[in-house]
Amino acid sequence: MPTLAADPTVLANRLRPVLLKLNRQLRREIHSLGVTGGQVALLVQIKQHPGIGIRKLAALERISVPGMSKFVSRLEEAGLVQRAPVEGDQRRVELRLTAAGQKVLRSVRSKRTAWLSARLHALDPDELDAIDAAIEPLLNLLEAEEA
Amino acid sequence: MPTLAADPTVLANRLRPVLLKLNRQLRREIHSLGVTGGQVALLVQIKQHPGIGIRKLAALERISVPGMSKFVSRLEEAGLVQRAPVEGDQRRVELRLTAAGQKVLRSVRSKRTAWLSARLHALDPDELDAIDAAIEPLLNLLEAEEA
DNA sequence: GGCATTTCGTTAACCAGGTTAACGAATCGG
DNA sequence: CCGATTCGTTAACCTGGTTAACGAAATGCC
C-alpha cells in the first residue's frame, strides 16, 4: 500500500529510476517496421496537426529545433513524411504524412507484440487501472511548465 | 476519469509518449554536481551492493556489460567510485563508492530543485497519490521479464 | 599437470537521440 | 529601404547505448 500524501521529493527519487529503466526498455522497441517510439510519436503529432512547421513540432515534442529538423529529415528519407513549401512564406515548411506514413501509423497502433504492450498484458486489472490513473497527473507534470 | 479495465494495448499507446517526454526532461536534470540521473542510479546500486561486479551491475540496470564498463569508467574518472581487485580472482573487480561518491549521493537525495521534484510540488495531493500508486505496477512491468 | 571451456572485463566501432553555435534566406515593421 | 525578427538547416559535439572481438584468469576434466 503506497504512502498517502507522498512527499514530492521522496516521490521524485522513487519515480526517477523507474522511468529510467522503462525508457531503456522502450528504446529497444524498434519493432518490425523499423520505426522507433520517438518516430511514431512524431508521426502521431504530424497526423494530428497536418501542415505543422518544424518549430511548432519541436515545441510540442519538447526538443530543440535543430533536433527536430534532423528527425524530420530522417522520416522524409524513409518516405513517411513530406516537407512541402508554404504558400506565401518561403521560410516555412509544411509537414504532412505520406500514404506510407499513415500506413505505418495504422499498423503500429494495433500492435500488441511490442514490449510494453506485452508486459502490460501480464498485469492484473487493478495494476492497469493504477497506471491508467497516473497518466493524466504525469501529463500535468509536463504541461505545468508550458505556462 | 480514467477508463476502468483499460485495454493493455491502448494503455501502452497512451503511456509511451508520456514516458518519452518525461524522460526527455529528466535527461536535462544534469544538475549542480554534474551527475546525470543515470549516474545517480548507478551510485545508488553500488551503495546498496558494495563490492558488486560490472556484470551484476549491468544486469541490475538492464544495460549491456560493455556499456556498464564504460559508465563505471566515467564515474571512476570523476572520482565517485573505486574499482578494486578481488581477492583470489583477478578477473573480477569490486566496485565501491568513494567518500566523494557518498557525498554526491547524500546531496542529491535531498535536492528539491531538480526538475522532477519541482514539478511534483506543483501537483495536487491526489495526483501525487495516483503517481505513487502507479510506481509499483510500473516496476512489475520490469520484473516480469526477469523470469 | 595440461588443455579446453567458461567467465569477467575491456576496447573498438558504431548508432540514435539529443544539444548549442553559427548561418542564410525570407519576412516584417518602422 | 533597411534593421530586426523568424524559420529552418548545417556542423560539431556529447551522452547513452549496442554488438563484435578480444585477452586474461579461473574452472573442469582426463
Describe this structure in words.
- The structure is a homodimer of 147-residue chains.
- Chain A is mainly alpha-helical and 147 residues long.
- The first copy, chain A, has seven helices and two strands, in the order ααααββααα.
- Chain A has helices spanning 8-27, 37-48, 54-61, 65-77, 99-109, 115-121, 125-143, and strands spanning 81-86, 89-97.
- In chain A, strand 1 (81-86) and strand 2 (89-97) form a beta hairpin.
- The interface between A and B is large, with 62 and 62 residues.
- Chain A binds a DNA duplex (30 and 30 nucleotides) through helix 4 and strand 2.
Map the helices and strands.
2 copies of one chain form a homodimer.
Chain A lengths: L7 H20 L9 H12 L5 H8 L3 H13 L3 E6 L2 E9 L1 H11 L5 H7 L3 H19 L4
Helix pairs in contact in A: 2-5, 3-4
The structure holds a DNA duplex (30 and 30 nucleotides).
Provide a short characterization of the protein structure.
By secondary structure, chain A is mainly alpha-helical. The first copy, chain A, is built from seven helices and two strands.
Estimated structural class of chain A: mainly alpha
CATH top level of the largest domain in chain A? Mainly Alpha
CATH superfamily annotation of the largest domain in chain A: Winged helix-like DNA-binding domain superfamily/Winged helix DNA-binding domain
Assembly state of the chains shown: homodimer
Strand order of the largest sheet of chain A: 1-2
CATH architecture descriptor text of the largest domain in chain A = Orthogonal Bundle
Mean pLDDT of chain A: 90
**Low-confidence parts of chain A:** none
CATH topology of the largest domain in chain A, anyone? Arc Repressor Mutant, subunit A
Q: How would you spell out the order of helices and strands of chain A? A: HHHHEEHHH
User: How many strands, which pairing sense, and closed or not: the largest β-sheet of chain A?
Assistant: 2 strands, antiparallel
Strand residue percentage of chain A: 5-15%
Distance between the termini of chain A: 34 Å
User: Helicity level of chain A, as a percent range?
Assistant: 55-70%
Overall shape of chain A: it is globular
User: Rg of chain A to the nearest angstrom?
Assistant: 18 Å
Biggest interface and residues each: A-B, 62 and 62 residues
Please count the beta strands of chain A (DSSP E, at least 2 residues each): 2
